[in-house]
Design a protein that fits this description.
The protein has two domains: 1-69; 77-164. Helix content is 70%, strand content 0%. The protein has helices at 3-21, 25-48, 77-91, 99-121, 129-164.
């Protein structure tokens, strides 16, 4: 058994003792709930460690039954690619739109920001067109870099998921 599961069981035994010594019914019920939760956590830890938890009629743990041997067939390359794509999409989705769309959205956001800045501070960008174009170009480049980073992150996630699956 794993060390964490043993610690949970020790704490559950302590909670059972506290329940027996409780001065009120509410305290006893709280400690019994705590004991059940700690025993459940211990069983979860055993399961995570790969141990099968079997209890007899009295609730005591029995020895682990032997695990059946499972023979698996190799996974085809197409299935590996599909599984890798599905898993990678969960935490690093591939950008759907093109670079042009990212750039256009960046230009639109920059235009709205310049308009809001103009209205709030009264700064007229028509008198400083080079500054306005520089800001719009910087935001457009930033949007393109964002798409490149997302594409690269998806590629790394896909490769990691593809490598995880068995051949």
């Amino acid at each position: 058994m794993g060390r964490t599961a043993d610690n949970f069981r020790d704490r559950a035994r302590h909670a059972a003792e506290e329940a027996r010594r409780a001065l009120s019914d509410d305290d006893g019920a709280l400690q019994r709930k705590r004991q059940d939760a700690l025993n459940h956590l211990a069983e979860n830890e055993d399961w995570l460690d790969g141990q099968v938890v079997v209890r007899d009629q009295s609730g005591e743990l029995k020895a682990n039954p032997p695990k059946p041997s499972i023979k698996t067939r190799p996974i085809s390359d197409e299935v590996r690619k599909e599984n890798a794509t599905e898993m990678a999409e969960g935490y690093a989705p591939k950008p759907i739109d093109s670079s042009v769309m990212y750039g256009l959205v960046g230009i639109g956001i920059a235009g709205l920001a310049l308009f809001a800045f103009n209205r709030f501070y009264g700064f007229d960008f028509s008198l400083h067109p080079f500054l306005a174009l520089l800001i719009i170009a910087a935001v457009c480049v930033g949007a393109l870099v964002l798409r490149a980073l997302r594409t690269r992150r998806h590629g790394r996630a896909w490769k990691t998921e593809y490598d995880k699956t068995e051949k």
